[in-house]
Amino acid sequence: MPVLSVDGLTRTYAGAERPAVQDVGFALDRGECLGLVGESGCGKSTLARCLMRIEDADRGSIRLGGHEIARLNGRRLRPHRRKIQIVFQNPTAALNPKLRIADSLLDPYQQLGQGAKLTHFAYTSRDAYIRRLLEAVELPAELAGRYPHELSGGQRQRVTIARAIGIEPDVVVLDEPTASLDVISQGAVLDLLDGLRTSLGLSYLFISHDLAAVHRMSQRVMVMRGGEIIDRFAANELFAEDRHLYTKELISIF
To answer: Considering its fold, how many domains does the chain have in total?
Structure first.
């Protein structure tokens, strides 16, 4: 059974001429990285917000671990929130500037993780938990006492990754996770994410406008345009002759 399956997902904003996301469907297997690529404004981030239930889809199905969550709210949704986490594009905006790194890392556990059977990041003590998370994303333990503004952009994004994986979700949505980083930091973060997927058994939906990054990370790729999935293929079939014309246009600037 797929760890995440989506069918017919549609989201239209008030006053818009067409849906931001239209009839999107896909399945994500356990341990897989599924890439979603498309230009800015094509609906990728709207899809991510719907999957996270930050926004409600107008219609469609979202099954997480076999449970339908598209219409759940409040206490009925809460048990499922631990199973899907997100890493946003801008780590500065994602971290509370008034909280030390340690407190930011603890927050998901305190909100959603208590009582969960964690394997890799079992909570034995506050300090041990934070130390293991920082080690997992290759950051020194002394950063725990600092504030976000005292870290580099790459370090801040590693903290948001640590925060996402700390309650051991089944799925991590990566919404342009390297877009705000310099080229060197981008490569290092992609390597880190790939290693974490393997070592922790995570499943990723990797969303980006960068086809090269998506191709590097993913086993399968979907191409979105105008809110619709217009092409899908195994990563090793990127250059096949039957690719959609729009995909070929993206390849030309690869």
So the answer is: 1
151 domain residue, yes or no: yes
Residue 153 belongs to what domain range?
A: 84-168
Phi and psi at 207, nearest 5°, equal -105, 130
Does residue 4 belong to any structural domain of this protein? no
Which structure tokens are listed for 219? 């086993």
State pLDDT tens for residues 164-180.
999 999 999 999 999 88
**91-122: per-residue pLDDT in tens?**
999 999 999 999 999 999 999 988 888 999 99
What CATH number does residue 105 fall under? 3.40.50.300
- Other Cβ atoms closer than 10 A to 235: 16
| Contact indicator for 35, 28 with CB cutoff of 8 Å | no
Q: What average pLDDT score do residues 229-252 get? A: 94
Distance separating alpha carbons of residues 240 and 251, to the nearest angstrom: 11
In a domain, 158, yes or no: yes
